[in-house]
Amino acid sequence: MKKILFIGALAFSVAAQAQSSVVFNMLSSDGGMGSARYMALGGAMGALGNDASAASDNPAGIGTYRSSELQIDWQGGLMTRQDPTGIQIPNISYVHVMPVAKGYQLNGFFAFRNDSWSGNQWQSIESNPNERMVDQWLDASQGINGPDELLAAGLLGAYTAYQGYVLEYDEDNNEFFDLSQGLPSQHVTLIKQGFQSNHLIAGASLRTPQLSLGLSRSYSHASAFESLVVDEDGFSGYTSGYTYSQSDSMSITGASSSLGVILRLPLDLQAGMRISMPNVASLDWYSRYRMTARTTNNDSPFELTDKQTWETLPGVSAAFSLAKKFQSKGFIAVEYHRKSLPEQTIISPISAIGIGQDLLDDLVVVEGVRVGMEWRKGPLAYRFGYQQSNAGTQFKDHSGFQRGSVGLGYRSDQASIHLALVSNYRQARIYNPINSDLWTVNALQHQLVIGVNFRV
Fold first, then answer.
1. What angle do CA 219, 192, 19 make, to 5 degrees?
2. What residues make up the domain containing 138?
3. Dihedral sign, CA of 283, 195, 45, 398?
4. pLDDT in tens, 335-370
5. Which tens digits make up the pLDDT trace of 13-45?
6. Is the pTM higher than 0.85?
7. DSSP 8-class letter at 107
8. What's the domain count of the chain?
9. Is 90 helix (H, G, I), strand (E, B) or coil?
10. Apex CA 54: angle with CA 50 and CA 56, to 5°?
11. Phi, psi dihedral angles at 234 (to 5 degrees)
12. Cα–Cα distances in Å, from 267 out to 35, 134, 160, 196, 270?
Protein backbone atom coordinates (compact mmCIF):
# COMPACT_ATOMS: atom_id res chain seq x y z
CA MET A 1 0.00 0.00 0.00
CA LYS A 2 1.21 3.47 -0.83
CA LYS A 3 2.24 5.81 1.94
CA ILE A 4 -0.38 8.50 2.64
CA LEU A 5 0.79 11.71 4.29
CA PHE A 6 -1.54 13.75 6.49
CA ILE A 7 -0.41 17.35 6.61
CA GLY A 8 -1.73 20.39 8.41
CA ALA A 9 -0.04 23.10 6.34
CA LEU A 10 0.27 22.21 2.66
CA ALA A 11 3.11 23.62 0.55
CA PHE A 12 1.10 25.16 -2.29
CA SER A 13 2.45 24.94 -5.82
CA VAL A 14 3.24 28.00 -7.91
CA ALA A 15 0.29 27.19 -10.15
CA ALA A 16 -2.07 27.08 -7.18
CA GLN A 17 -0.80 30.43 -5.94
CA ALA A 18 -1.29 31.99 -9.37
CA GLN A 19 -4.76 30.53 -9.58
CA SER A 20 -5.70 31.79 -6.14
CA SER A 21 -4.49 35.31 -6.85
CA VAL A 22 -7.00 35.42 -9.69
CA VAL A 23 -9.70 34.02 -7.40
CA PHE A 24 -8.79 36.62 -4.78
CA ASN A 25 -9.23 39.33 -7.38
CA MET A 26 -12.65 38.08 -8.38
CA LEU A 27 -13.67 38.81 -4.81
CA SER A 28 -12.48 42.39 -5.30
CA SER A 29 -13.85 42.99 -8.80
CA ASP A 30 -16.10 45.95 -9.46
CA GLY A 31 -19.09 44.31 -11.12
CA GLY A 32 -21.90 43.46 -8.72
CA MET A 33 -25.56 43.12 -9.57
CA GLY A 34 -28.12 45.53 -8.17
CA SER A 35 -31.57 47.01 -8.68
CA ALA A 36 -33.16 47.19 -12.14
CA ARG A 37 -32.79 50.97 -12.42
CA TYR A 38 -29.20 50.83 -11.18
CA MET A 39 -28.27 48.09 -13.67
CA ALA A 40 -29.98 49.83 -16.60
CA LEU A 41 -27.87 52.93 -15.92
CA GLY A 42 -24.59 51.02 -15.68
CA GLY A 43 -24.37 51.69 -11.94
CA ALA A 44 -23.49 55.35 -12.61
CA MET A 45 -25.75 56.71 -9.86
CA GLY A 46 -23.32 57.83 -7.17
CA ALA A 47 -24.20 61.50 -7.73
CA LEU A 48 -27.95 60.85 -8.01
CA GLY A 49 -29.12 58.43 -5.33
CA ASN A 50 -32.85 57.78 -4.96
CA ASP A 51 -32.16 54.07 -5.51
CA ALA A 52 -31.26 51.29 -3.10
CA SER A 53 -28.20 50.05 -4.97
CA ALA A 54 -27.00 53.61 -5.54
CA ALA A 55 -27.39 54.24 -1.81
CA SER A 56 -25.40 51.06 -1.12
CA ASP A 57 -22.57 52.46 -3.26
CA ASN A 58 -22.76 56.00 -1.86
CA PRO A 59 -24.65 56.37 1.45
CA ALA A 60 -25.32 60.03 0.68
CA GLY A 61 -27.87 58.70 -1.82
CA ILE A 62 -30.07 57.73 1.13
CA GLY A 63 -30.75 61.42 1.65
CA THR A 64 -32.16 61.96 -1.85
CA TYR A 65 -35.39 60.09 -1.06
CA ARG A 66 -38.44 62.35 -0.51
CA SER A 67 -40.72 59.59 0.82
CA SER A 68 -40.29 56.22 2.52
CA GLU A 69 -39.91 53.35 0.06
CA LEU A 70 -39.75 49.56 -0.08
CA GLN A 71 -37.83 48.19 -3.06
CA ILE A 72 -37.56 44.60 -4.34
CA ASP A 73 -35.76 43.36 -7.45
CA TRP A 74 -35.65 40.00 -9.23
CA GLN A 75 -32.98 38.84 -11.65
CA GLY A 76 -32.85 35.84 -13.97
CA GLY A 77 -30.50 34.56 -16.67
CA LEU A 78 -31.36 34.62 -20.37
CA MET A 79 -29.79 32.85 -23.33
CA THR A 80 -26.76 31.70 -21.35
CA ARG A 81 -25.09 28.81 -23.18
CA GLN A 82 -24.40 25.70 -21.06
CA ASP A 83 -24.88 27.47 -17.74
CA PRO A 84 -28.26 29.16 -17.25
CA THR A 85 -28.41 31.43 -14.24
CA GLY A 86 -31.30 30.76 -11.88
CA ILE A 87 -33.69 33.40 -10.63
CA GLN A 88 -32.36 35.33 -7.65
CA ILE A 89 -33.12 38.49 -5.70
CA PRO A 90 -30.21 40.93 -6.10
CA ASN A 91 -31.76 43.62 -3.93
CA ILE A 92 -34.25 44.08 -1.07
CA SER A 93 -34.24 47.46 0.67
CA TYR A 94 -36.22 49.90 2.77
CA VAL A 95 -35.71 53.64 3.24
CA HIS A 96 -37.45 55.60 6.00
CA VAL A 97 -37.76 59.37 5.57
CA MET A 98 -37.94 61.62 8.66
CA PRO A 99 -38.33 65.40 8.05
CA VAL A 100 -36.60 67.40 10.80
CA ALA A 101 -36.98 71.00 9.56
CA LYS A 102 -37.85 72.91 6.40
CA GLY A 103 -35.47 71.68 3.70
CA TYR A 104 -33.85 69.20 6.10
CA GLN A 105 -34.53 65.51 6.60
CA LEU A 106 -32.86 62.51 8.23
CA ASN A 107 -33.28 59.21 6.38
CA GLY A 108 -32.55 55.66 7.52
CA PHE A 109 -31.70 52.77 5.21
CA PHE A 110 -31.48 48.97 5.27
CA ALA A 111 -30.62 46.69 2.32
CA PHE A 112 -29.62 43.18 1.35
CA ARG A 113 -27.67 42.68 -1.90
CA ASN A 114 -26.91 39.36 -3.56
CA ASP A 115 -24.72 38.70 -6.58
CA SER A 116 -23.42 35.65 -8.41
CA TRP A 117 -21.49 35.00 -11.59
CA SER A 118 -20.69 31.69 -13.23
CA GLY A 119 -18.68 31.41 -16.41
CA ASN A 120 -19.72 29.04 -19.17
CA GLN A 121 -18.23 25.60 -18.65
CA TRP A 122 -15.43 25.17 -21.18
CA GLN A 123 -15.15 21.64 -22.50
CA SER A 124 -12.75 19.93 -24.90
CA ILE A 125 -13.19 16.33 -26.13
CA GLU A 126 -10.43 14.85 -28.26
CA SER A 127 -10.29 11.34 -29.73
CA ASN A 128 -6.99 9.51 -30.26
CA PRO A 129 -4.80 12.39 -29.01
CA ASN A 130 -1.04 12.28 -29.52
CA GLU A 131 -0.36 13.92 -26.14
CA ARG A 132 -1.32 13.08 -22.58
CA MET A 133 -1.45 14.69 -19.15
CA VAL A 134 0.65 11.88 -17.67
CA ASP A 135 3.75 13.18 -19.46
CA GLN A 136 3.39 16.54 -17.70
CA TRP A 137 3.56 14.80 -14.33
CA LEU A 138 6.49 12.63 -15.43
CA ASP A 139 8.42 15.69 -16.61
CA ALA A 140 7.68 17.49 -13.32
CA SER A 141 9.01 14.54 -11.32
CA GLN A 142 12.39 14.44 -13.08
CA GLY A 143 15.21 14.73 -10.54
CA ILE A 144 12.83 14.20 -7.60
CA ASN A 145 13.86 11.42 -5.22
CA GLY A 146 10.62 9.90 -4.03
CA PRO A 147 7.04 10.98 -3.36
CA ASP A 148 7.92 12.87 -0.18
CA GLU A 149 10.07 15.25 -2.23
CA LEU A 150 7.19 15.71 -4.69
CA LEU A 151 5.05 16.98 -1.86
CA ALA A 152 7.81 19.11 -0.37
CA ALA A 153 8.41 20.71 -3.79
CA GLY A 154 4.72 21.60 -4.10
CA LEU A 155 4.21 19.32 -7.15
CA LEU A 156 0.70 18.43 -6.03
CA GLY A 157 -0.54 17.20 -9.41
CA ALA A 158 2.31 14.72 -9.76
CA TYR A 159 1.97 13.71 -6.11
CA THR A 160 -1.75 13.06 -6.60
CA ALA A 161 -0.95 11.03 -9.73
CA TYR A 162 1.48 8.91 -7.70
CA GLN A 163 -0.92 8.31 -4.81
CA GLY A 164 -3.76 7.69 -7.30
CA TYR A 165 -2.02 4.84 -9.19
CA VAL A 166 -1.23 6.78 -12.35
CA LEU A 167 2.51 7.05 -11.55
CA GLU A 168 4.76 4.67 -9.66
CA TYR A 169 8.23 5.14 -8.16
CA ASP A 170 11.21 2.86 -8.85
CA GLU A 171 13.36 3.01 -5.70
CA ASP A 172 16.25 1.13 -7.33
CA ASN A 173 16.62 3.63 -10.19
CA ASN A 174 15.28 6.65 -8.25
CA GLU A 175 12.76 7.60 -10.93
CA PHE A 176 9.02 7.71 -11.53
CA PHE A 177 7.34 5.74 -14.32
CA ASP A 178 3.78 5.56 -15.65
CA LEU A 179 1.24 2.86 -14.80
CA SER A 180 -0.99 4.23 -17.57
CA GLN A 181 1.14 3.30 -20.55
CA GLY A 182 0.76 4.34 -24.17
CA LEU A 183 -1.54 7.05 -25.55
CA PRO A 184 -5.18 7.43 -24.47
CA SER A 185 -8.05 6.80 -26.86
CA GLN A 186 -9.89 9.89 -25.57
CA HIS A 187 -9.04 13.04 -23.68
CA VAL A 188 -11.65 15.28 -21.98
CA THR A 189 -10.94 18.63 -20.29
CA LEU A 190 -13.46 20.72 -18.31
CA ILE A 191 -12.81 24.20 -16.86
CA LYS A 192 -15.23 26.09 -14.61
CA GLN A 193 -15.23 29.37 -12.67
CA GLY A 194 -17.74 31.06 -10.39
CA PHE A 195 -18.38 33.86 -7.91
CA GLN A 196 -20.96 34.59 -5.17
CA SER A 197 -21.37 37.50 -2.75
CA ASN A 198 -23.87 38.74 -0.16
CA HIS A 199 -23.98 42.17 1.48
CA LEU A 200 -26.04 43.43 4.42
CA ILE A 201 -26.03 47.24 4.60
CA ALA A 202 -27.43 49.75 7.09
CA GLY A 203 -26.99 53.50 6.97
CA ALA A 204 -28.34 57.00 7.48
CA SER A 205 -28.12 60.31 5.66
CA LEU A 206 -28.78 63.97 6.45
CA ARG A 207 -30.22 66.05 3.62
CA THR A 208 -29.87 69.85 3.42
CA PRO A 209 -30.77 72.19 0.55
CA GLN A 210 -27.15 72.13 -0.71
CA LEU A 211 -25.97 68.59 -0.01
CA SER A 212 -26.61 65.11 1.35
CA LEU A 213 -24.16 63.53 3.79
CA GLY A 214 -24.38 59.80 4.50
CA LEU A 215 -22.72 57.06 6.54
CA SER A 216 -23.22 53.30 6.18
CA ARG A 217 -21.93 50.02 7.54
CA SER A 218 -21.68 46.94 5.31
CA TYR A 219 -21.24 43.29 6.30
CA SER A 220 -20.28 40.98 3.46
CA HIS A 221 -19.37 37.42 2.54
CA ALA A 222 -17.97 36.52 -0.88
CA SER A 223 -16.56 33.38 -2.44
CA ALA A 224 -15.00 32.44 -5.77
CA PHE A 225 -13.71 29.23 -7.30
CA GLU A 226 -11.88 27.74 -10.26
CA SER A 227 -11.85 24.05 -11.17
CA LEU A 228 -10.15 21.80 -13.70
CA VAL A 229 -11.16 18.23 -14.61
CA VAL A 230 -9.06 16.02 -16.91
CA ASP A 231 -10.21 12.55 -17.98
CA GLU A 232 -8.04 10.23 -20.08
CA ASP A 233 -9.04 6.71 -21.06
CA GLY A 234 -7.84 3.80 -23.19
CA PHE A 235 -4.33 3.26 -21.79
CA SER A 236 -2.57 -0.09 -21.69
CA GLY A 237 -0.93 -1.25 -18.49
CA TYR A 238 -2.10 -1.47 -14.89
CA THR A 239 -4.13 1.78 -15.13
CA SER A 240 -6.47 1.92 -18.13
CA GLY A 241 -7.77 5.42 -17.42
CA TYR A 242 -8.30 8.07 -14.78
CA THR A 243 -10.23 11.20 -13.83
CA TYR A 244 -8.16 13.98 -12.27
CA SER A 245 -9.81 17.02 -10.69
CA GLN A 246 -8.27 20.12 -9.17
CA SER A 247 -10.24 22.92 -7.52
CA ASP A 248 -9.20 26.10 -5.78
CA SER A 249 -11.61 28.31 -3.86
CA MET A 250 -11.41 31.32 -1.61
CA SER A 251 -13.95 33.08 0.59
CA ILE A 252 -13.71 36.32 2.52
CA THR A 253 -15.92 37.63 5.33
CA GLY A 254 -15.65 41.14 6.68
CA ALA A 255 -17.14 44.56 7.20
CA SER A 256 -16.51 48.10 6.01
CA SER A 257 -17.70 51.64 6.73
CA SER A 258 -18.53 54.15 4.00
CA LEU A 259 -18.79 57.93 4.08
CA GLY A 260 -20.36 59.74 1.15
CA VAL A 261 -21.53 63.16 0.02
CA ILE A 262 -23.68 64.50 -2.83
CA LEU A 263 -23.29 68.18 -3.69
CA ARG A 264 -25.94 70.15 -5.60
CA LEU A 265 -24.09 72.53 -7.92
CA PRO A 266 -25.12 75.31 -10.32
CA LEU A 267 -26.18 74.50 -13.90
CA ASP A 268 -28.18 71.48 -12.68
CA LEU A 269 -25.01 69.57 -11.87
CA GLN A 270 -24.58 67.11 -9.00
CA ALA A 271 -21.30 65.65 -7.77
CA GLY A 272 -20.87 62.59 -5.59
CA MET A 273 -17.91 61.27 -3.61
CA ARG A 274 -17.56 58.16 -1.47
CA ILE A 275 -14.77 56.46 0.46
CA SER A 276 -14.98 53.01 2.08
CA MET A 277 -12.66 51.86 4.87
CA PRO A 278 -12.60 48.08 5.48
CA ASN A 279 -11.93 46.25 8.72
CA VAL A 280 -9.71 43.20 9.05
CA ALA A 281 -11.44 40.35 7.23
CA SER A 282 -11.28 36.57 7.62
CA LEU A 283 -10.09 34.72 4.53
CA ASP A 284 -10.45 30.97 3.89
CA TRP A 285 -8.44 29.30 1.14
CA TYR A 286 -9.41 25.75 0.20
CA SER A 287 -7.72 23.46 -2.34
CA ARG A 288 -8.64 19.95 -3.44
CA TYR A 289 -6.78 17.47 -5.65
CA ARG A 290 -8.48 14.15 -6.46
CA MET A 291 -7.44 11.19 -8.62
CA THR A 292 -9.82 8.36 -9.50
CA ALA A 293 -7.94 5.73 -11.47
CA ARG A 294 -9.43 2.77 -13.32
CA THR A 295 -6.99 0.03 -12.35
CA THR A 296 -6.71 -3.75 -12.57
CA ASN A 297 -7.30 -4.11 -8.82
CA ASN A 298 -10.00 -1.39 -8.60
CA ASP A 299 -7.91 0.71 -6.21
CA SER A 300 -9.61 3.42 -4.16
CA PRO A 301 -9.47 7.08 -5.26
CA PHE A 302 -6.95 9.41 -3.65
CA GLU A 303 -7.82 12.92 -2.47
CA LEU A 304 -5.54 15.63 -1.12
CA THR A 305 -7.21 18.63 0.51
CA ASP A 306 -6.11 21.60 2.54
CA LYS A 307 -7.88 24.53 4.19
CA GLN A 308 -6.10 27.61 5.50
CA THR A 309 -7.70 30.47 7.43
CA TRP A 310 -5.97 33.84 7.53
CA GLU A 311 -6.74 37.46 8.23
CA THR A 312 -6.41 40.18 5.62
CA LEU A 313 -6.90 43.94 5.49
CA PRO A 314 -8.57 44.69 2.13
CA GLY A 315 -7.82 47.84 0.19
CA VAL A 316 -9.57 51.18 0.59
CA SER A 317 -12.06 51.98 -2.18
CA ALA A 318 -13.33 55.32 -3.45
CA ALA A 319 -15.69 56.63 -6.12
CA PHE A 320 -16.19 59.99 -7.83
CA SER A 321 -19.28 60.79 -9.89
CA LEU A 322 -20.84 63.67 -11.79
CA ALA A 323 -24.37 64.02 -13.18
CA LYS A 324 -25.98 66.63 -15.40
CA LYS A 325 -29.75 66.96 -15.06
CA PHE A 326 -31.99 68.24 -17.84
CA GLN A 327 -34.75 69.54 -15.59
CA SER A 328 -37.47 66.85 -15.53
CA LYS A 329 -36.48 65.31 -18.86
CA GLY A 330 -33.61 63.14 -17.65
CA PHE A 331 -29.88 63.17 -17.00
CA ILE A 332 -26.48 61.85 -18.02
CA ALA A 333 -23.98 60.58 -15.43
CA VAL A 334 -20.40 59.32 -15.29
CA GLU A 335 -18.56 57.63 -12.43
CA TYR A 336 -15.03 56.46 -11.64
CA HIS A 337 -14.23 53.71 -9.11
CA ARG A 338 -10.87 52.77 -7.63
CA LYS A 339 -9.91 50.04 -5.15
CA SER A 340 -6.39 50.09 -3.75
CA LEU A 341 -4.19 47.12 -2.98
CA PRO A 342 -4.52 45.44 0.42
CA GLU A 343 -2.31 47.17 2.97
CA GLN A 344 -1.59 43.80 4.54
CA THR A 345 -2.60 40.76 2.55
CA ILE A 346 -2.15 38.24 5.33
CA ILE A 347 -1.31 39.12 8.93
CA SER A 348 -1.83 35.72 10.58
CA PRO A 349 -0.50 33.08 10.91
CA ILE A 350 3.22 33.74 10.57
CA SER A 351 3.64 30.61 8.41
CA ALA A 352 1.40 32.17 5.74
CA ILE A 353 3.36 35.41 5.29
CA GLY A 354 5.29 34.06 2.29
CA ILE A 355 2.15 33.08 0.41
CA GLY A 356 0.55 36.36 1.45
CA GLN A 357 3.38 38.36 -0.09
CA ASP A 358 3.14 36.31 -3.29
CA LEU A 359 -0.55 37.15 -3.53
CA LEU A 360 0.12 40.82 -2.88
CA ASP A 361 2.77 40.91 -5.62
CA ASP A 362 0.27 39.46 -8.09
CA LEU A 363 -2.42 42.10 -7.53
CA VAL A 364 -2.89 45.49 -9.12
CA VAL A 365 -5.29 48.34 -8.38
CA VAL A 366 -8.88 47.68 -9.50
CA GLU A 367 -10.31 50.58 -11.53
CA GLY A 368 -13.65 50.96 -13.26
CA VAL A 369 -15.71 53.47 -15.25
CA ARG A 370 -19.50 53.74 -15.44
CA VAL A 371 -21.72 55.77 -17.77
CA GLY A 372 -25.52 56.09 -17.62
CA MET A 373 -28.24 58.08 -19.37
CA GLU A 374 -31.97 58.44 -18.67
CA TRP A 375 -34.56 60.19 -20.85
CA ARG A 376 -38.08 60.74 -19.49
CA LYS A 377 -41.31 61.19 -21.38
CA GLY A 378 -44.33 61.46 -19.14
CA PRO A 379 -44.41 58.52 -16.69
CA LEU A 380 -41.92 56.54 -18.81
CA ALA A 381 -38.13 56.58 -18.51
CA TYR A 382 -35.74 55.15 -21.12
CA ARG A 383 -32.29 54.14 -19.85
CA PHE A 384 -28.90 53.16 -21.23
CA GLY A 385 -25.71 52.19 -19.39
CA TYR A 386 -22.16 50.92 -19.79
CA GLN A 387 -19.70 49.66 -17.18
CA GLN A 388 -16.09 48.47 -17.41
CA SER A 389 -13.55 47.24 -14.86
CA ASN A 390 -10.06 45.76 -15.11
CA ALA A 391 -9.15 42.35 -13.71
CA GLY A 392 -6.99 43.67 -10.88
CA THR A 393 -4.17 41.18 -11.43
CA GLN A 394 -0.90 41.26 -13.32
CA PHE A 395 -1.71 37.82 -14.74
CA LYS A 396 -2.95 38.15 -18.32
CA ASP A 397 -4.93 34.92 -18.08
CA HIS A 398 -8.11 36.72 -17.05
CA SER A 399 -9.78 39.86 -18.31
CA GLY A 400 -11.90 42.24 -16.30
CA PHE A 401 -15.49 42.62 -17.36
CA GLN A 402 -17.63 44.80 -19.60
CA ARG A 403 -21.34 45.38 -19.16
CA GLY A 404 -23.90 47.00 -21.44
CA SER A 405 -27.52 47.61 -20.49
CA VAL A 406 -30.83 49.09 -21.58
CA GLY A 407 -33.90 49.66 -19.45
CA LEU A 408 -37.38 51.04 -19.09
CA GLY A 409 -39.18 52.53 -16.11
CA TYR A 410 -42.78 53.49 -15.32
CA ARG A 411 -43.65 55.67 -12.34
CA SER A 412 -47.00 56.42 -10.68
CA ASP A 413 -47.89 58.27 -7.49
CA GLN A 414 -47.75 55.17 -5.27
CA ALA A 415 -45.36 52.78 -7.02
CA SER A 416 -42.97 52.33 -9.91
CA ILE A 417 -41.72 49.40 -11.96
CA HIS A 418 -38.34 49.09 -13.64
CA LEU A 419 -36.93 46.69 -16.24
CA ALA A 420 -33.31 46.19 -17.30
CA LEU A 421 -31.69 43.91 -19.87
CA VAL A 422 -28.01 43.47 -19.00
CA SER A 423 -25.20 41.78 -20.95
CA ASN A 424 -21.97 40.85 -19.13
CA TYR A 425 -18.78 39.80 -20.88
CA ARG A 426 -15.65 38.28 -19.37
CA GLN A 427 -12.75 36.48 -20.99
CA ALA A 428 -10.14 34.07 -19.69
CA ARG A 429 -7.01 32.83 -21.44
CA ILE A 430 -6.12 29.46 -19.95
CA TYR A 431 -3.16 27.28 -20.77
CA ASN A 432 -3.91 23.75 -21.94
CA PRO A 433 -2.68 21.48 -19.11
CA ILE A 434 -1.50 18.90 -21.67
CA ASN A 435 0.61 20.95 -24.10
CA SER A 436 0.49 24.54 -22.75
CA ASP A 437 -1.42 25.81 -25.81
CA LEU A 438 -3.45 28.95 -25.07
CA TRP A 439 -7.22 28.48 -24.83
CA THR A 440 -9.59 31.44 -24.87
CA VAL A 441 -12.67 31.04 -22.70
CA ASN A 442 -15.39 33.62 -23.31
CA ALA A 443 -18.27 34.11 -20.89
CA LEU A 444 -21.19 36.14 -22.26
CA GLN A 445 -24.23 36.23 -20.02
CA HIS A 446 -27.52 38.08 -20.26
CA GLN A 447 -29.78 38.96 -17.33
CA LEU A 448 -33.26 40.38 -17.07
CA VAL A 449 -33.78 42.43 -13.91
CA ILE A 450 -37.25 43.50 -12.75
CA GLY A 451 -37.74 45.92 -9.87
CA VAL A 452 -40.76 47.28 -8.01
CA ASN A 453 -40.77 50.30 -5.67
CA PHE A 454 -43.63 50.94 -3.24
CA ARG A 455 -44.03 54.29 -1.51
CA VAL A 456 -44.92 53.76 2.13
1. 70
2. 14-455
3. positive
4. 999 988 776 555 545 444 455 555 666 667 778 899
5. 333 333 444 444 444 455 567 899 999 999 999
6. no
7. E
8. 1
9. strand
10. 115
11. 95, 20
12. 28, 68, 67, 41, 9
Task: Please state, as a whole number, how many other Cβ atoms lie within 10 Å of the Cβ of residue 67.
Answer: 10
Distance of CA 24 to the CA centre of its chain: 8
Q: Where are the beta strands (DSSP E) in 50-103?
A: 69-78, 88-101
**Burial letters 242-274, b for 16+ CB under 10 A, else e:** bbbbbbbbbbbebebebbbbbbbeeeeebbbbb
**DSSP E strand stretches across 314-397:** 317-325, 330-339, 344-348, 366-377, 380-389
Q: Cα(first)–Cα(last) distance of the chain, in Å?
A: 70
- Please answer whether residues 403 and 389 qualify as being in contact, where contact means their C-beta atoms are separated by less than 8 angstroms: no
| CATH code for the domain in which residue 91 is found | 2.40.160.60
In a domain, 363, yes or no: yes
Give the burial class of 206: count Cβ atoms within 10 A of its Cβ; 0-12 exposed, 13-18 middle, 19 or more buried.
middle
Helical spans, DSSP H, in 305-402? 353-362
C-alpha 392/C-alpha 79 separation (Å) is: 28
Residue 219 to residue 291: CA distance in whole angstroms? 38
Going by DSSP bridges, is the β-strand pair 317-325/167-170 parallel, antiparallel, or unpaired? unpaired
